[in-house]
Amino acid sequence: MTETLEEFLVARRGTGRPLLVPYVTAGVTPGWTDVVHAYADAGADAVELGFPFSDPMLDGVTIQEASDRAIAAGTTVRGILDEVATLDVGVPLVAMTYSNLVMRHGTAEFCAALTASGLRGLIVPDSPLEEAGELADAAAAVGLDLVLLAAPSSSRARLREIAERSRGFVYAVTRMGTTGEGGEIPGQAARLGRELKGLTDRPVLFGFGVSDPAQAAELAGHADGVVVASALMRKLLDGARPRELGEYVASIRRALE
Predict the structure, then answer these.
(1) pTM of the entire structure?
(2) d(CA 245, CA 257)
(3) Is residue 89, in this structure, part of any structural domain at all?
(4) Is 92 a member of any domain?
(5) 48 catalytic, yes or no?
(6) Of 48, 145, 181, 224, which one is the catalytic site residue?
């Protein structure tokens, strides 16, 4: 795939398609790459791959459990990248991890390794905007889109800076706190989506707490699409097979359209 993550998503959006990015924790099961294939076959526009970390501060109990399971199984960054390099699913793959893991491997080296394996985007949710310069430069140098998060509590000036500096898409957080299923979508989420859409033509996707197809459709009405993570990982941890996860992603796709 020669297109950047952003170019791919903008082209998909240009067809009138709401964007859907499902998540899987890499290494959570021996056949986790089958989940990626199932997502792509079900209509995903990109797939977010969580690189397991022992202290995922922004993740709720579900993704923490998935991360712990992957670590217990011996999952490593090198192992994930080797498996990713064999994937050809027709949509961009986006890494999600934490600053500690990036710095441990060296910022430039980590970004280069992601690109070499075929990844097109990177999300590091605990990297503050004020300290993201080195990471952004390293990512840009190897054609990796660094996706930044925008919170409902951010000032308009900060949102403007996030929208300008983010690449790939802007990750709009529906609520303050950690990831996880359940709960009503707060009204501030809709306002955040509308504000970001007024600040950038870059795709805006909502994440955190997108629990079911109806919520996905509601949120997509205020932005360009959604990221779905904990709801899928809960199903996987409860024993759902790749085919069943794909069917659930397909149900979200139908709701979006």
Answers:
(1) 0.94
(2) 19
(3) yes
(4) yes
(5) yes
(6) 48
